[in-house]
Amino acid sequence: MLYADNNGSMPMHPDVKEYLLKRLEGPFANPNAIHSLGQQVNRAMEKCRKICAEIVGTKRKNIIFNSGSSEGIAHIFHSVLGHKPSERNIIITSGIEHSAVVNNCKNYQDLGYTVKTINTLKTGEIDLDHLKSLMSDKVAMVTVMATNNETGVIQPYKEIGSLAHEFGAIYFSDTTQIIGKDDFNFDESQMDFAVMSSHKIGSLIGTGFILARDIKMLSDFIPGGGQERGFRGGTQNYIGVECLTVAMQAFEKEKHLLHDVRKYRDEFETNIKKQHPSIVVIGDKARRIAGTTLISYPGIHGQAVQIELESKDIFVTTSSACSDNEPETSKVLKAMNISDDIGRGVVRISFCCGASSDCYQYLYDSLNGIYEKLSQVKTR
Ligand SMILES: Cc1ncc(COP(=O)(O)O)c(C=O)c1O
To answer: Which are the contacts of 261, defined by CB distance < 8 A and separation ≥ 6?
Structure first.
């Protein structure tokens, strides 16, 4: 089996599995209880906060544990924008955001905010000049992701943050696909807020965190028992937090492997394009996270390729896991001005640190055969 959908969800890392199996022996307690077991669990969770903070380059007081990115994104919108627009009534976003950001923008538009969308370049990066032209002192928040989940393209987030701050706006970046997947330092990022989901980095579903440059900018989101300093009520998923921390540490240990993954990926792309010159690799002119390839053979439907790959036990998606059953060109590719012929043909291949040259060779052999077969059907 070759699992190549790590941007959708990364299989559990062996270190996490080993930790979890032992951890299930206990102790179990409410981390907010004052008895010694509760305090023991709480100390472990606070140690995790410190470790995660060190890894992402910030202070532990800037981390709020939660259920993952979708919750984090809603919490940040709520904190920055409140219930109705003030003097600052503009949200600037990009055309390549995940639906979690897109739908929050829509909700705040319904509340009276004006949403402006930055153009996307053909490379898959946002157009910084266009962003400059949209900025004013009416902008409340700029929200542009750090890495796109479909193309893997890394956005110029430091420049985006500097521009937002020049005009006194908040910069929130959806960092779901960069934390635990590439080098990232929050305090140097120019971001005011960032998010992460632990299942994207080889840990359990249902945990994650928010990073806040100044925690006072965050407001209470879930009323509850005052957990997470009142910002997010509800008993913390302390086992999830511990596993998330193990996954973050595993990435730190293994991130040197990304250099090789990038090399294998680039060789794979070069070879398959040599074999089938009409193939397009979307985003290959920009800096991307190491294991992601969004590939298209124009005229051959991505779902047909996906089904053929699955018959060989290779698991990919056609765009992102969330929009996999939409037979249309994704909105991300539309924003990049990619034609439907290419857009409907895409298959997203996403590996993590562990991808070997054998993985890429098997993928190459399989995909090569599939494209040969399907291109004959197409021309018949
Ligand atoms: C870029 C991006 N943002 C946000 C999310 C939402 O994450 P979750 O479903 O874990 O809340 C995802 C997940 O697909 C993502 O890829």
So the answer is: 290, 291, 351, 352, 353, 355
pLDDT (tens digit per residue) in 228-268: 999 999 999 999 999 999 999 999 999 999 999 999 999 99
Closest-CA residue, ligand 1 atom 7, reads 69
pLDDT per position as a tens digit, 3-13: 999 999 999 99
> Which ligand 1 atom is nearest residue 7's CA?
16
Whole-angstrom distance, CA of residue 360 vs CA of residue 351: 10
pLDDT in tens, 85-143: 999 999 999 999 999 999 999 999 999 999 999 999 999 999 999 999 999 999 999 99
| Overall pTM surpassing 0.85 (yes/no) | yes
Q: Which residues line ligand 1 (CB under 6 A)?
A: 68-70, 98, 100, 145, 149, 174, 176-177, 197, 322
**Closest ligand 1 atom to the C-alpha of 100?**
4
**How far is the centre of ligand 1, averaged over its atoms, from the C-alpha of 70 (Å)?**
6
Contact in structure between 140 and 214 (CB atoms under 8 Å): no
Q: Are 181 and 197 in contact (CB under 8 A)?
A: no
Mutate which of 177, 182, 294 for ligand 1? The one with the most ligand atoms within 8 Å of its CB, which is 177
